[in-house]
Amino acid sequence: MCKLIDITSVPVEPFLDLLLQDKSTKKNIIWATDTYQGYGHGFSDKEQINKKLLLLHADIIKPRIQKSQEEQAARTRKKAEVFTPKRVVKEMVDMLEKENPGCFDDPDATFADLYMKSGMYITEIVTRLFQSSRMKVLFPDDAERLNHIFAKQVYGCAPTEIIYRICLRYILGFSDEIKIEKNNIKLCDTLEYAKDGTLEENLEKLFG
Q1: Interaxial angle between packed helices 120-131 and 142-152, expressed in degrees from 0 to 180 and rounded to the nearest 10
Q2: Do residues 163 and 142 share a domain?
Q3: What is the phi/psi pair of residue 165, to 5°?
Q4: 32, 35, 74, 104: which is deepest, by most CB within 10 A?
Q5: pLDDT tens profile 66-109
Q6: Quick one: which of 177, 175, 179, 128 has its CA closest to 151?
Q7: Pair 53, 94 in one domain
Q8: Do residues 136 and 173 both lie within one domain?
Q9: What whole-number distance in Å separates Cα of residue 28 and Cα of residue 4?
Q10: What is the pTM assigned to this prediction?
Q11: Which domain holds residue 52?
Q12: Are 126 and 150 in contact (CB under 8 A)?
């Protein structure tokens, strides 16, 4: 599988200090997994991620879609973290279409993933819209059709900067030939808004 993100490359590496920072504590985020403790000091579950140490082992950082099934299962058991397989994502979107016939043929229909983890759900939505026969009639030009979809139809919120970067890279990598002029993928932890009952209000501000 191709490498979705290289943390040693420009523009990622210069921003690692910012990406690794927990905005609430102003400290670096922790590993939150025992997977990397074999690398020694600085890589255990509760330790903060150190930029210099991280760059020495840059290849260990990867999105969950590239992690082994064993690693995903272990993390899920320990952290109650849920990974949605691609097959299940497709089934979810199939069900959405069954319950809303013609939804992917409607240029005014909107879709959202308000707590993104990998970007697979939104990418599958984009695929269905892009491949729709009616959408092709309305927007014969591939670039125009794809840009309409990203600007007017799909919305997403990622809870952390690292997840945000991964999702953005994955979703906007839908086409290597077409440049996306505008998208509605935002960095926002909607869980906090949902807890205090201000989700709708803050989404209006975010996407307004």
Answers
A1: 130
A2: yes
A3: -65, -40
A4: 104
A5: 555 555 555 554 444 456 788 899 999 999 999 999 999 999 99
A6: 179
A7: no
A8: yes
A9: 23
A10: 0.62
A11: 13-79
A12: yes
